[in-house]
Design brief:
251 residues; globular
Length: 251
């Protein structure tokens, strides 16, 4: 009787918990063995209760460690490399200094405009374009001829979408290829400076946008203040003039 119930339990756990969670075969086997050892000491009635309790405990552990076990990991895009902190870097001769006067990247502490920025104009000659990086770029041609640009053909913003991806904003969340962008710059409400989003996030929803080849989608951290790819579309990679390394480090 117990063996039959164990077999049934194993089938159900394979179809639910272990199908979605990050369990190796050895970890699965250990769970089964522990349940069998514990339940072999009980009578069938208590064993039935043990099945329920073991399954509930397993689901709780999975939820605490890996999140919702029934939401496939493939439904989320993460960025473990990009930090919200802005480093202090030494300015070198082959770099450039830039004083930015906009608050379109602010997250509540005058980010990017409280000190001189150091930009490496040669960075992408040796490195690939990466999501999350703040870049110095030239506006698309159609904007550079617009008199309202006040002779400011260049700006800074963050790379959020890469070539070929489909991107949109919904309920203060960035989605890429229908996957949540789980990063501080992908969740609009994480930015305390995005006060209007807390009142009416849907006002900043966008339609799906397919990023052309050799283009990137730029988004300011302060969505309600930023003039970015939501307004002028994706930017050609050739318009990326350098990477913002951080604030100038004064000796």
């Amino acid at each position: 009787m117990i063996d039959q119930e164990l077999k049934y339990l194993r089938e159900k756990m394979d179809q639910t918990v272990f199908e979605h969670a990050s369990f190796s075969e050895s970890r699965k086997l250990a769970v089964y063995q522990n349940i069998k050892q514990e339940t072999s000491k009980r009578v069938p009635v208590i064993f039935s209760f043990g099945i329920v309790m073991s399954l509930c405990a397993t689901l709780l552990i999975v939820a605490l460690i890996v999140g919702n076990p029934f939401e496939p990991a493939s439904s989320v895009i993460t960025d473990p490399l990009t930090s919200p902190d802005i480093e202090r870097v030494v300015y070198e001769d082959d770099m450039m200094l830039y004083e930015w006067i906009s608050d379109a990247m602010d997250r509540g502490d005058h980010h990017f405009y409280k000190d001189q920025l150091v930009i490496d104009p040669n960075y992408y000659e040796l490195n690939e374009i990466t999501r999350g990086e703040v870049v110095y770029f030239t506006y698309p041609e159609k904007l550079r001829t617009n008199p309202t640009m006040n002779n400011e053909p260049k700006s800074i913003s963050r790379i959020v979408g890469l070539p070929g991806e489909t991107i949109y904003l919904k309920d203060a969340q960035v989605y890429i290829d229908d996957k949540k962008l789980d990063a501080f710059y992908g969740r609009g409400r994480d930015n305390v400076y995005n006060r209007p989003l807390f009142e009416d996030a849907k006002e900043y929803d966008t339609k799906e946008y397919i990023i052309p080849a050799d283009h990137v989608f730029l988004l300011g951290d302060a969505w309600w203040r930023s003039f970015d790819s939501r307004d002028f579309g994706a930017v050609p990679i050739e318009n990326i003039n350098g990477k913002v390394l951080g604030y100038r480090k004064w000796k």
